[in-house]
Design brief:
This protein is of the alpha/beta class. Helix content is 41%, strand content 21%. The chain is built from 12 helices and 13 strands. The chain has a 5-stranded mixed sheet with strand order 3-2-1-4-8. A 5-stranded mixed sheet has the order 11-10-9-12-13, sandwiched between helices. A 3-stranded antiparallel sheet has the order 5-6-7, with no helix packed on it. The longest helix is centred in the last third of the chain and has 25 residues.
Length: 324
């Protein structure tokens, strides 16, 4: 493929519905990008072909990148780059690093997708220049990542950062992981929608705007519906957002006590849809965490949006390439 430019890497964000790829320089600037649907029905090898095609789409910029970094929505073996389990892709113990490296002919480094987004925000986003950072991305589900003393914490088996499964209630609401009391069961988009439907059924007289926005169909209420109703002053939606803020603040207090970060970055669709959550959760942390844990702590919104994963995967490849 010619001489490689080690200052430029490819970042890939692989999820169950899309493959997003970008050619990224050392400053975190996207040079060119490409996006395709994930062909889950084509199997693992077909998805690798899709990723390779997406990468080739980005190579018309007259530069040969030094490496590929890929963030995948699944559990990743930090040593081999194998994907142990990726439910949205239907993968178990798939050798992604080897397969993609052989296909594109470039050094390839694999990391969990939320860890990739964490790296993106740390290296080139809201956490730039800070050595102790925790991210929490609140979307349909809840995930996060930990940067401690300038290093990504991956854990014994690579799964560190499952912050959505911190316990915020003993024997509380059932989570998607089939355990109870997880932060995700109170703050994840699916959980907000479920809680809203329950509340509307119990007291429809307090949810006129919420019901109207859902077209009168209680089953059509989503986290987005709650966000819209909240901004229109619907009392039930406002109560629901207060519940979410308390749960988030409780989880963040545990994170602050455990890791003593300088910065917690909040991102994801729920936070973007209800921007007030950042300030509300920050106040809860100040109430619930140890004084020493919040002495220097800031809680801020993420800044890279939908590009955090691709930029972070590219930054991971750049880091690994230059430390190999």
């Amino acid at each position: 493929m010619g001489d490689r430019d080690r200052s430029v890497t490819v970042g890939v964000d692989l999820g169950g519905t899309k493959v997003e790829t970008a050619l990224v320089d050392a400053s975190g600037t996207i040079i060119v990008s490409s996006r395709r649907k994930t062909g889950v029905d084509r199997g693992a090898e077909g998805i690798v072909d899709d990723i390779a095609a997406c990468i080739r789409d980005c190579l018309g910029a007259n530069v040969t990148p030094g490496a590929v970094g890929i963030g995948v929505a699944g559990q990743v073996d930090p040593e081999s780059g194998n994907v142990w389990y990726a439910p949205n892709l239907g993968w178990r113990d798939f050798p992604l690093r080897t397969r993609l490296q052989d296909t594109v002919g470039l050094p390839t480094f694999v990391v969990n997708d939320v860890q990739a987004a964490t790296i993106g925000e740390w290296k080139h986003g809201a956490g730039r220049g800070i050595s102790d950072v925790v991210t929490l991305f609140v979307g349909t589900g809840v995930g996060g990542g930990v940067i401690s003393d300038g290093r990504l914490v991956r854990g014994c088996d690579g799964s560190a950062g499952e912050l959505g499964h911190l316990k915020v209630a003993v024997e509380g609401r059932r989570c998607s992981c089939d355990r109870r009391g997880c932060l995700e069961a109170y703050a994840g988009g699916w959980a907000i929608a479920r809680r809203a439907r329950e509340a509307v059924e119990a007291a429809p007289d307090r949810a006129a705007t919420l019901i109207e926005l859902a077209g009168g169909d209680h089953g059509a209420i989503t986290a987005g519906t709650v966000a819209d109703a909240f901004h229109r002053g619907d009392p039930m939606a406002q109560d629901l957002v207060s519940e979410v803020a308390r749960a988030l603040g409780t989880g963040l207090a545990s994170i602050a006590n455990a890791f003593n970060p300088c910065l917690i970055i909040l991102g994801g669709g729920v936070v973007e849809g209800i921007r007030e959550l950042t300030a509300l959760a920050r106040r809860e942390v100040e109430i619930r965490a140890l004084d020493v844990a919040v002495k220097s702590l800031r809680v801020v919104p993420a800044s890279l949006g939908q590009h955090a994963g691709t930029i972070g995967a590219a930054a991971w490849a750049h880091q690994e390439l230059h430390t190999a």
